[in-house]
Design brief:
The protein has 89 residues and is mainly alpha-helical. Helices cover 38% and strands 7% of the residues.
Amino acid sequence: MTRQIREQLNTLIEAGEIAAGTLLPSERELANTLKVARNVVRGAYEQLMDAGKLTSEGRKGRSVSSGRSGGAKKRTSKTTKKTSKARKK
């Protein structure tokens, strides 16, 4: 079921039927509309976010990314470089 929702949303995004910047329904709202469990919708949304199709808008929800071509977003990890200072004698 998650795969079906993901594929249908992806098709709509790729076809331009859901414009970039458009807020999607909340997980609960879409789950109730489709009569599925909320975690099913959450899984589809998360997979689309991993693919770079959706972005999180915090408490506002999720919106379609501006780059329709998508492609996997590169996740960068912040690494801090610790420098050691020599002690003066």
